[in-house]
Amino acid sequence: MEMSSVDTTSESGLREECGLFGMVAANSGIDITLSHLIHLGLVGLQHRGQESAGIVTSMGGPNDTFVTRKAMGLVNGAFSDDDIVSLKGNLGIGHVRYSTQGLSNVSNIQPFVVESLHGLIAVAHNGELVNAIHLKQKLLRHGVGLSTSSDSELITQLLTHTPDCGEPNGANWVGRIKNMMQETVASYSLLIMHKDRIWAVRDSYGNRPLCIGKLLPADAVTVMRSPSGNRLALPDESEAWIVASESCTFHAMGAEYVRDVLPGEIVEVTKNGVISRCIVPRPEAHPPAFCIFEYVYFARPDSRFEGQMVASVRRRCGRQLALEWPADVDLVSTVPESATPAAMEYAATLNIPYREVLCKNRYVGRTFIQPSARLRKLGVAKKFGPLVDNFYGKRLVIIDDSIVRGTTMGQLVALLRKAGAKEVHVRVASPPIKYPCYMGINIPTKEELVANIIPLNEMAKLFGADSVHYLSLEGLKKAVTEGLKEGQETGHCTACLSGDYPVKKLDW
Length: 508
Fold this sequence. Notes:
Layout: E1 15-16, E2 18-25, H1 34-44, E3 52-58, E4 67-72, H2 75-78, H3 81-86, E5 91-97, E6 112-116, E7 119-126, H4 132-141, H5 151-159, H6 173-183, E8 189-194, E9 197-202, E10 211-215, E11 240-244, E12 255-260, E13 265-270, E14 273-279, E15 290-291, H7 293-298, E16 304-305, E17 308-309, H8 310-324, E18 331-334, H9 340-350, E19 358-360, H10 373-377, H11 379-383, E20 384-386, E21 395-400, H12 407-418, E22 423-428, E23 441-442, H13 450-453, H14 459-463, E24 467-470, H15 473-481, E25 492-493, H16 495-498
Parallel strand pairs: 15-25, 18-21, 21-22, 22-24
Antiparallel strand pairs: 1-23, 2-5, 2-11, 3-4, 3-5, 6-7, 7-8, 8-9, 9-13, 10-11, 10-12, 13-14, 16-17, 19-20
Helix pairs in contact: 4-5, 8-9, 8-15
């Protein structure tokens, strides 16, 4: 992330940091160029970042150079066909970066490539370092020059340092990575490419996601599940090993989710497979702190975290919301699209019909810079169209996944009322957001969050709604943990909701 103030002018007010994707071809080879698959993988992670994209590949030989292509914009526009063809290699990593205003800079596009004592390394990072300013000053005092404003470059530079244990037998990447992890405890998921392998790393709190997948032979793709829907045993043969921020990106290329990279785990990925080299323990045996908002909003619903599908968690949030805050209405609907699973389960739990009341225009793009007051006021109307026949004269409850500044919700309620809704109730499938995040999510300042501006019992008046209620924090935790296996180590960061930060930000 940028080591300066974050953007707080976007309409939603929430921005994920980045998406990571890495792949190593196995001995059997791949029937399509590896760079095409990395490109496809980044498309599947586009929701995690829309500012820029980058890919670095290598043939994996001891003296091979890296081929790098980077550009601003969406993945499909950032790389030409010639770019993809030129990215030759047997392994590679890619990165998509989140969208900001005023902080865009070509020099900040990842992956970063630097020369180390043992050759070139490429690094891609998702997260935000809690002690970035301290580390920057430390590196500068040691004569290290920095060329970007990204804290991800600090990680890259730390990895070039010889570990305290030394390297009498050549490169000791586990030692280098552990040394970096001792310098900063959070927040990061990393892909590090060196010669013929990729190292996949999560911080010891597991704050940001990272998972491992397996590219199956083409003739195995259609038989991955039995007629009953149960997953069949994976074929022993693999065409490639994959590491990505989310498992949703595996499906499009015929790959299968294998498991998450564990909190604090250092995983080595080569053409021969995946080996766990080390797990770095958390300070003072603290519990893990996986970002709970990955379940609420950021992740695609078809992704899997901690062994469970995101859509299933969102459905449970809707069920819990219905139990805590039922509504006497004629129909249930949603603010498209991440709240849809919660809305459908809310409706099913209360035995109320579910209907869509808003049609979303997916091609509007960013709407926060407008040339006139008239266009600014039309921001929501440009993004959503009312499906009037579905709700005219009806009492409805609309479900949203979260509310940040509150400006959009007020406009949506007004839009629905003007189009003929008799009553409009609002239910939110997560608790009020009250605190900023400094571990990888761009959340507005505390003073800009609507839950801090007005008491909850006055929220309905602010939005022009008949009632407004949020899911409780305990209800959210229950929905998230209900699907976990018995005995599974778990822990979630709820800092933006509770103010309980797992790690102190050292630069405040």
